[in-house]
Design brief:
Blueprint: E1 8-14, E2 20-22, E3 26-27, H1 29-48, E4 53-62, E5 71-81, E6 85-98, E7 107-124
Antiparallel strand pairs: 1-5, 2-3, 4-7, 5-6, 6-7
Length: 132
């Protein structure tokens, strides 16, 4: 296994209403950061055979709200590969959103999706046997 620039992992997740902490069913930004951790874990497993550890975020931008009832597509893409570090670009986009005006269980597919959160972060993985 070798980490390569451009390697991408995607997750889709329904955001339960139980995660809404603020008025209007608004979900806090920490929820999305947790999803970034999940997708980074799979990325590290696929590229390095290890779950890795999150070391730092270089930046996080909250560009649009996330609500209970949304469906998010969360993406992690390797941007730079070091000996043990990987710089990863993250994006969370709302692909479906509840539409209560049409009915209590109605929802709409958003085309195009709404980019809600972006970030860059660094993960670290153990030395591979070939480099240690």
């Amino acid at each position: 296994m070798t980490a390569e620039v451009g390697c991408t992992v995607r997750h889709r997740r329904y955001v339960p209403y139980s995660h809404a902490h603020y008025g209007g069913n608004l979900v806090d930004g920490a929820y999305v950061l947790g999803l970034f951790g999940d997708v980074a874990t799979e990325l590290c497993i696929r590229t390095d055979g290890d779950e890795g550890l999150f070391a730092a975020y270089a930046d996080v931008t909250f560009a649009a709200p996330v609500y209970g009832g949304d469906v998010l597509e969360v993406t992690a893409t390797v941007e730079r590969v070091g000996r043990r570090s990987r710089v990863v670009a993250f994006e969370a986009a709302v692909v479906c959103r509840a539409d209560a005006a049409r009915g209590p269980s109605a929802a709409t597919v958003l085309d195009p999706p709404v980019v809600a959160v972006t970030a860059h972060g660094t993960v670290v993985v153990p030395d591979s046997p070939a480099t240690s």
